[in-house]
Amino acid sequence: MASTDPLLAIRNQGPIECGEDAAQHFGFDKGYRNLNHGSFGTYPQTLRPIVSHFQIRAEARPDAFIRYEEPTLLDEAREAIASYVHAPVETCVFVPNATTGINTILRNLVYQPGDIIIYFDTVYGSCEKTIRYITETTPAEAAKIKYKYPVSDDFLCNALESTIASLRREGKNPRLALFDTIVSLPGVRMPFERLTSICKAGKVLSLIDGAHGVGHIPLDLTALDPDFFVSNCHKWLYVPRGCAVLYVPLRNQDVMRSTLPTSHGFVPKLREGEEPITNPLPPAKGKSDFVVGFEFVGTTDNSAYFCVPAALEWRQHLTWGGTKGEEAVMGYMHHLAKRAGEIVATALGTEVLENEAGTLGQCAFANVRLPLVGAEVLTSGETGEWVLVAQWIARTLAEKYDTFIAIIFFGGAWWMRLSAQVYLTERDFEWAGEMLKEVCERVRRGEWKAGKAVNGSS
């Protein structure tokens, strides 16, 4: 590390109370309410000089930094994230985002006829498209577990068990199951711990899309013991974009032979008479092929990866209700999400999406139904029209109300996904409830048909 410690400013700062105090540490435009943290995340302004610190070092001595210093910085960041998720450091590497991680895993597996990839109805869109690509280009097939929320955790677990059993009766090989920690849309928690155990008992590989996991809910990957796990750090951990941790236990690392794209770390199987392909990068002693492979995946800006220790340090200064650090961050977010759902649902006269056991909302998301009836709004009632209304609302919120909320259509209704965060308060969601009543009235007046979004108060 350079003589100037980039973490010094963070270590020296005092306690930061969740809510209005924490909001002062983020760089939002005046008047902008960031109600959709879950999509792209953001990070405190204290980390901006740290990002620049690493970028400046890279430009000051490009070869020396990229070839010889970056591996050490990556090791330090890997040690930090591995400790945070309770995993051996040799099982954790970095990729730019969860989509890249999912693709890396699915494209490394070698599929045989009869192999089946199982996935759930609420899978993230790019993940489903990746599965479709795999089934178009390899012998693999896919089995989709269909349902509509709200459903119980038992339903999902029973569905996975029965799907595995049914495929085996058909002579198929359920090779892998893909599922979330927390679903993206709607934003609900899945029983991923139980689903992982079911996979283990059924001798099916478990691939967890934890895009909304790290920094959002407590994780112990050693106890969970999935076959593969990937999670964005730039969403809920306050790391700059794009940064995700890819976890592969030692037992499966021989399967992960290539990064995406394939780079210098790949070790080809030599045919008779072939010479090894030289890796032009400095040799990394004492590291596995898996770790070495992900140290350099083409020329990219890895400064976000190096910021993981800083983000974890910053979180330790957050306080709420007599708690601090991770307990304060997660406790505040989950409490605020529940209150946000209640506040907005009351304002709109609708309801929060939840099952009877109350497990869907055990996270920092709240999903609230919009007070719109299709017959009163739509012209034809076709699915495309439902989607157009959702898109019009979302764009209107961004362009005219200085905010954004994810709007989706499912189960015959429009729903919104609210993100709770340490920089938000109940007043933000009181404002959101009143604002959304106005926007819904505009939908009823048919403004979405002309694609118009007239000015409104914010």
List the helices and strands and how they pair.
Elements: H1 8-11, E1 16-17, H2 20-23, H3 37-40, H4 48-60, H5 62-84, E2 92-95, H6 98-108, E3 115-120, H7 125-137, E4 141-145, H8 153-169, E5 173-180, H9 192-201, E6 205-209, H10 221-224, E7 228-232, E8 244-247, H11 289-295, H12 303-306, H13 308-315, E9 318-320, E10 323-324, H14 325-348, E11 365-369, H15 374-377, H16 383-400, E12 406-410, E13 413-419, H17 426-444, H18 447-450
Parallel strand pairs: 1-9, 3-4, 3-5, 5-6, 6-7
Antiparallel strand pairs: 2-8, 7-8, 9-10, 11-13, 12-13
Helix pairs in contact: 4-5, 6-7, 8-9, 14-17
What does this protein look like?
It is a single chain. The strands form 3 sheets. A 7-stranded mixed sheet has the order 2-8-7-6-5-3-4, sandwiched between helices. α4 runs antiparallel to α5, α6 packs parallel to α7 (125-137) and α14 packs parallel to α17. It is α/β, with parallel strands linked by helices. It has 18 helices and 13 strands. It folds into 2 domains: 69-309, 3-Layer(aba) Sandwich (Aspartate Aminotransferase, domain 2); 321-448, Alpha-Beta Complex (Aspartate Aminotransferase, domain 1), CATH 3.90.1150. α10 (221-224) links the parallel β6 (205-209) and β7. It comes from Neohortaea acidophila.
